[in-house]
Amino acid sequence: MTLALDTGRIVATRARAASRRRTVSVGLLAALLVAFALALNLGDYPVPVDGVIRSLLSPFTGLTDRGVDFIVLQVRLPRAILAVLSGAAFAWAGIIFQTLLRNPLASPDIIGIAHGASAAAVFCIIILGWTGLAVSLGAFGGAVLTALAIYLLAWRNGVTAYRVVLIGIGMAAMLAAVISYLFTRARLNDVQQAMGWLVGSLNAARPGDILVLGLALAVLVPLMVTLLRSLDAMELGDDTARSLGARVEFTRLGLMLVAVGFAAFATSVVGPVGFVAFVSGPLARALLKGAGRGFPQAALVGSLVMLVSDLVAQHLLPATQLPVGVVTGACGALFLLWLLMASGRSGRVN
C-alpha cells in the first residue's frame, strides 16, 4: 500500500514537472516568435506583417518587391537569425559551466574565456593589423587557448569548481590588463575598431556568420546531448558517479570543451556580448522551479534576451544604433545585483 502511494506520488510529480517544462517552453517560444516578427517589422522603413510574409515567401512564389525584399531578406533577417543562434550558443555555454561547476557565477564572461577571445581579437587588430574574418578566427583561438590554460592550471588529480572559478577570475583580470596594455600601443583608428568589437554587436551580421555558427551548433548540440546523459550520476558526487560506472573526468572535460566551443564560435561572429551566458541558465531555472535542468529553456531565454536587447539597442535612441552589448551589459549588471541579493537572503552569500 505504502509502495503504491509512493509510486503514485512520483508519477504525479513527474507529470507536473513535464507540464511545467511544456508550459515554460511554449511561453518562451511564443515570446521569441513575437520578438522575431518585430525584428523584421520595425525600423526606419516599417514593413507590415503581410509584407514581411510575402517577402519571406518570395523565393518560392516569385512575387518580389525589390525594396522590401532587400530590407527584410538582406538586412533584418540575417541580423535576427544571428541573434537567435548566438543567444542560444551563449546560453548553452553558460548553463554547462554553471551546472558542471555548481556555481551561478561560472559563466564564460566571468571566468575569463570571453576575455581570452577579446585579448586575442585586440592583439589581431592592433598588433597584426587584421580585420574581418581573420579577427574572428583569432578570437576563437584565444577563447580555446584560455579555456585550456584554465583547465590545466586547475588540474590537481581532477578539477574542482572552486579552483576553476578562482583561476578563471584571475585569468580574466590578467587578460583585462593585457587588453589595457595593448590599447596604450594602439593608434586611434585601431582603438575605435577594437572597442567596437569588444562591446559586441549585430550591426555587421552576414550570411557567412550564420553559416559558420549554424554548422558549429549542428556539431556541438548532439555532442552536448550525448555527454549530458552522464550528468545525472555526476550530480550525486564524483565518488558515487565513479562507483556507478560514470567516466567523470572524461564527461567533465568533454562538456567543458563543448561549452568553450559554444562560447568561442558565438564570440567569433558577434563579439563578447556580455551577460547573455550568465543570465540565461538562472532565468530558465527560475521559470522551471525545479522541473528540470533547463538546457532547452535556457537556449530560448538566451535567444530572447539577445533578440530583445538588439531591438532595444536599435530603437532606444533616435538616429543612433547602439551595440547590443551595451544593452545586455546594463541589464546584466542589474541581474547580477539581484542574484547577489537573493543569494544573500537565502544564506548562500554572506
Report on this model:
This protein is mainly α and 350 residues long. 78% of the residues lie in helices and 0% in strands. It contains 14 helices and no strands. It has helices spanning 2-41, 49-61, 66-101, 113-126, 133-154, 161-184, 188-199, 207-228, 231-234, 238-243, 248-270, 276-288, 295-315, 324-346. Helix 5 (133-154) packs antiparallel against helix 11. It is globular. The mean pLDDT is 85.
Task: Quickly give the structural class.
Answer: mainly alpha
Mean pLDDT: 85
Helix residue percentage: over 70%
Largest sheet: none
Number of strands: 0
Portion of residues in beta strands equals: under 5%
> First CA to last CA: what distance?
46 Å
How are helices and strands ordered from N to C? HHHHHHHHHHHHHH
Give the overall shape. globular
Number of helices: 14
Rg, Å, rounded = 22 Å
**Unreliable stretches:** none
Task: Give a short summary of the structure.
This protein is an all-alpha fold and 350 residues long. It has helices at residues 2-41, 49-61, 66-101, 113-126, 133-154, 161-184, 188-199, 207-228, 231-234, 238-243, 248-270, 276-288, 295-315, 324-346.
